[in-house]
């Protein structure tokens, strides 16, 4: 007859569970001061890159991990826009592989070959948006990440979301200030007459503000296309080579631009051939109409280097505002030059009238003298 399995005493089970919870509570309590200090350190940062570096480093130290990485999603949430890593040396890369590489359904952010011996990953949320994932690998003591590790990293990820939101807001504010200052500088330069070529001023300032490889101004040409008439480039030789290039009227983008509609290019290789033929050597691009009244004076293009990140919605909005302000400044500068030319013509006309009157008076006086001499 088979021996019966003794039934565990419920009191013993409850006591064991209580001891486990007490141990867990004690461990979490012991980590609270370090966690609070880490949260204070993270919360004081305003530069997004600095904040992300601090989060990765702090998470690794608090959880005792050799490697830490933060994978941030792109604007569409379909892939990684950036990866911030900590403690990932070349030796670690060979052993842990790529800690964060891409998002796979239900698997989080992990693609390592060989797989790390231990791994912990939690999402970082900024408001209702999933900013990315905080991932830890390779527990320093060789063991597995514990429940206290998980709870602590979750708290840290929550604080990280707040800090990232603050850093984003700070960066957006500074970005707006730069674009506004740039618009004011362009307007002042164009209206003061300091700039020899107003279009080059617009291209130069737009390139600097957009963080682009080049700035181009294109104007409508007789064939219905757009001709590059002003260039400012990080590589002047490459930019100068495009000066005078014409985007033909048959390009799908040209009618949209001439109608006052902006065109944004994330991947030039996927764009129609005429556009790629002109700016194919560059990466993401913004092509913005310079509209004055009911007409398009030209187009402002700010392409980035190949492989650079696309322009964000905020950058696009600020660039559109800059283009609108630049167009107004161009119209005002053109009107000012017209007034100056008119003033010159009016002065010449006045001088001509004065000379005419003087000549007539002298001729009349000479005639009177001759008449007197004849008598």
From TrEMBL:
Residues 47-174, 194-340 form the GAF domain. This is GAF family protein. InterPro entries: GAF, GAF-like_dom_sf, Sig_transdc_His_kin_sub3_dim/P. Pfam families: GAF (PF01590), GAF_2 (PF13185), HisKA_3 (PF07730). GO terms for cellular component: membrane. It comes from the Bacteria. One of its GO terms (molecular function) is protein dimerization activity. Gene3D superfamilies: 1.20.5.1930, 3.30.450.40.
């Amino acid at each position: 007859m088979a021996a019966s399995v003794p039934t565990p005493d419920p009191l013993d089970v409850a006591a064991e569970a209580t001891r486990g919870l007490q141990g867990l509570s004690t461990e979490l309590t012991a980590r609270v001061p370090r966690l609070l200090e880490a949260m204070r350190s993270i919360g004081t940062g305003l530069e997004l890159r600095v904040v992300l570096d601090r989060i990765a480093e702090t998470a690794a130290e608090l959880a005792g991990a050799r490697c830490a990485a933060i994978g941030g999603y792109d604007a569409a949430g379909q892939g990684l826009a950036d990866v911030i890593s900590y403690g990932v040396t070349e030796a670690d890369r060979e052993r842990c592989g790529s800690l964060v590489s891409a998002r796979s359904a239900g698997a989080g952010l992990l693609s390592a070959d060989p797989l790390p011996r231990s791994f912990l990953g939690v999402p970082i949320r900024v408001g209702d948006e999933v900013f990315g994932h905080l991932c830890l690998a390779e527990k320093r003591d060789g063991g597995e990440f514990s429940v206290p590790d998980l709870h602590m990293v979750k708290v840290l990820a929550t604080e990280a979301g707040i800090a990232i939101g603050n850093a984003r807001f700070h960066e957006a504010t500074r970005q707006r200030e730069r674009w506004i200052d740039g618009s004011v500088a362009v307007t002042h330069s164009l209206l003061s007459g300091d700039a020899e070529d107003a279009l080059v001023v617009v291209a130069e300032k737009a390139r600097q503000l957009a963080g682009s490889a080049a700035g181009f101004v294109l104007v409508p040409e007789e064939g219905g296309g757009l001709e590059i008439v002003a260039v400012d480039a990080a590589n002047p030789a490459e930019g100068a080579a495009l000066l005078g290039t014409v985007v033909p009227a048959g390009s799908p983008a040209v009618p949209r631009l001439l109608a006052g509609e902006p065109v944004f290019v994330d991947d030039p290789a996927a764009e129609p051939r005429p556009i790629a033929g002109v700016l194919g050597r560059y990466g993401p691009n913004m092509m913005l109409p310079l509209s004055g009244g009911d007409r398009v004076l030209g187009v402002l293009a700010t392409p980035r280097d190949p492989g650079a990140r696309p322009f964000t919605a905020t950058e696009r909005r600020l660039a559109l505002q800059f283009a609108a302000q630049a167009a107004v400044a161009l119209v005002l500068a053109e009107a000012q030059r017209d007034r100056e030319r008119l003033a010159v013509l009016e002065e010449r006309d006045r001088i001509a009238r004065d000379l005419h009157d003087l000549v007539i008076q002298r001729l009349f006086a000479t005639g009177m003298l001759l008449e007197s001499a004849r008598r």
